[in-house]
Amino acid sequence: MQALPALAGLNAVGFLARFSYALARNPVLPLFALFLGAGPEAVGLAVGISTVTGIFFKMPAGALSDVIGRKRTMLAGLFVFGLMPFAYLFIENYQALVVVRFIHGLATAIYGPVAMAVVAEMAGERRGEMLSWFSSVMIVGTLLGAPLGGWMLHHAAGAPAPGITDFRLVFLVSAAAGMSALLLGLWLLRGPEAHANTGLSLSERLAKFRQGIGEVVADRRVLLTSAMEGVQNMGMGALEAFLPIYAVTRAGLNELEAGLLWAVQIVVTMFSKPLLGRLGDVQGRKAPIAWGLFCCALGLAAVPWLTTFWTLSIAALVFGLGEALVTSSSAALVADLCRKRNFGAAMGTFGTIFDVGHASGPILGGLLVAAFDFRLAFAMLAVVLLAAIPVFLAGVNLDNNTDNNAASA
Prior knowledge:
The two termini are 20 Å apart. This protein has helices spanning 3-23, 28-35, 40-68, 70-83, 94-123, 127-156, 164-188, 202-217, 220-249, 255-283, 286-302, 309-337, 343-371, 374-395, 400-403. Helix 3 (40-68) crosses helix 8 (202-217) and helix 11 (286-302) runs antiparallel to helix 12 (309-337). By secondary structure, the chain is mostly helical. It has a single domain (3-403), classed as Up-down Bundle (Growth Hormone, Chain: A).
């Protein structure tokens, strides 16, 4: 396939998949955990457990796609996207929610890094821009899913708070979107895949699998750049889990407004990422990452000092701009630093570290909120983001060709 039609198809599948995933995640998931009787620590675990799945499976999935092909690996992830949302319809206790969330995390763990590797392969020197466009289209799915989930809970509930039937209605819509992503993916990825490793024995495939992972994880710059995405996602994970709860229980907002707050952050990220990605392709990637971490820290620390929808929206906007600055350059920089044959392993390693941060955010945030309060907890997380900036700037030394993305992999 030509690059643009192939990217358009990937974008359409990614949109539907992320829309389905967002409906089942924010603000519905933390509110559902509260409905099931979870405390702050348990809410953080429920939100973060699906990301823990990515910690274990993203790197192997990406490296496996280098060996057996991208199509097979992506289809495996799409089957999880399509089938797992139906499991939410049968959840009646917190323990079942945690199990379902862990398994549902396989969807993004398998599909995400492989799709990013495909985009990186096709994009060439426009890697930052094209990865940002791909990410932004998936963000549109998240953008629509979060407020729609909040709106459905707010308007479907016949009582002051939503009940089990209201939550299940949201999960049913999530299941329909996930099945749509699966069916579209089956059509787009039909037919055999021409792959360089066709005909290799099992032992040869395993050797290439190990070699790809080994080459990627041995590069300190890849690991440190990925860690910056992980640190940023630690903040995002905490905000994702506790912004809806803070907005509803402390600021006095309703469920729809809580969903709209998250949408504000997503809108800013979505519209600014392609432009910032293109800027990184031309001007270099280190400075956007550093400034992005600063903006994320500022927005995160400000949230628990604010009590109105509009002031909280400004904090979400600042955080969203910071996220766009970091994410528009980090994945592209990782791809710049690795060999093309190992793009799957590189994106898997990047995704694994990404998920370490994303999973630790709600879990650590829950522990801090329970031990202290929202203000001190968010301030401590912001300090971690700020402390990462000098570590990154000092530890990732790039030549001019790499930093300007002139090397063509």
